[in-house]
What we know:
48% of the residues are buried. The radius of gyration is 22 Å and the shape is globular. The chain is α/β, with parallel strands linked by helices. The longest helix is centred in the N-terminal third of the chain and has 24 residues, at 96-119. Helix content is 29%, strand content 22%.
Amino acid sequence: MQGGQSLSYWLQQVRCDPLLDHRTTPDLPKEADTVIIGSGITGTLVAKHHLQAFPSKSVLVLEAREFCSGATGRNAGHCKPDQWRHYTKFEKAFGAEQAVKIMQNEKATWEALVGYVRANNVDCDLWVGDTIDVPLDDEVAKIAEDVFENYKNAGGKVDHIKVTKDPAEAVKISRFKNAKACYAWSASTLQPWKLTAHIMRENLKQDINLQTYTAAESVEETPSGPRKFIVHTNRGDITCDTVVYASNAYTSAIDPSFKGIITPKPHMCNKVIPPRSWSGSKALRNSYGVLLPNGALFSINPRCTADGAVMFGGSNTGQKALDEWVEKHPEHGTNDGFASLESVTKHVRAFVEEEFEGWKDTELGPGEGFEYSWSGIIGLSADGVPFIGEIPGKPGQWICAGHHGHGMARTFTAAPGLVKLMNGEPWSAIGLPDVYQLTAERLKRLKGSDGAPKLMTMKAGAGL
Length: 464
């Protein structure tokens, strides 16, 4: 984890920010009341709410590399609540009631994030507007329609979703030549590192201790002494009474019991500078989910209130080929050094040239076009939803991880929910879907009778 990382566009923008390598104290503290492992949006929010719930307790946040240099600092910049698209998969896995609650929770998470940014005037390039899901062939459009109707019939709220089934009208709305339908609802894009940095700076004003370049290696119970746990790091040991795993894809490297339960996987994001024919008044004004055959997906963030660079994430055909390669070479599961992979970029380029009228015929000038791509590590959950709660058999050790590539649409409710649990509130009081709760029964079911993890087929970013 210590070297070779590709720099996301977000991290490229903040190279002179001292928070990147911040250490509140020159030396690593020998003890703390609570140690939080991870400084992404989850760990930073847990620290924020921990301060409010336990103002007298000392908190130490550990980060293995630069501040917020994991998944939060590497995503495609969306906070897009799933409002219908994965309903059928969740319904098959958990039942209709829980599937509807997952959609409701993602909307509540988005509202909490936007509310925080606006209330605190956070400088993070926030955009609020219509995100549009667009199927590009008749079969995918039919599947999308069926999923939407199933969700609606199950009692899912759809009044806020604008549905366009006429292909000609869908082409006008989306600006994609082969659009078959459009599903539009409110979502956001943002600069995720800057949002997380704002929250952490507020934390630091209240005596949070942040230690970057401090990799947590393992946690064990203390054989004796006033503290319950020893957190072993590359810079020495820390004793504490409470540990929070906000380490997402890296969790199993610290606690091997999560091996196969939370699985790391590199995911690519492409930065594209549009040509002049798609700039200015002709620039994209919405974010998108492009629904493709065989579960492929493009996530598009055009940063329309910022610099207009267009971010392409998701699971296109090239990403799926990378997934298959990593499955054969699992030692690369945490390798976020992949950059400018033509095997992925060529599919983004082909999509743009096919769907964006005039792009293919425009001569790209210096500084335009497919500039760069980087990798980030997704924490795939074995059953497709995060793990939140106290780790079974390990009282005092808590987790909020395994966000399955959808952390920005979950953490603004998941992190405060975890802290409420830590403060003794029951699960029923925290407002999260029941299937997010980490229980001994859930772990046993996922590991199966032979102790080997039993993964569902709900891949991150998978189609409908």
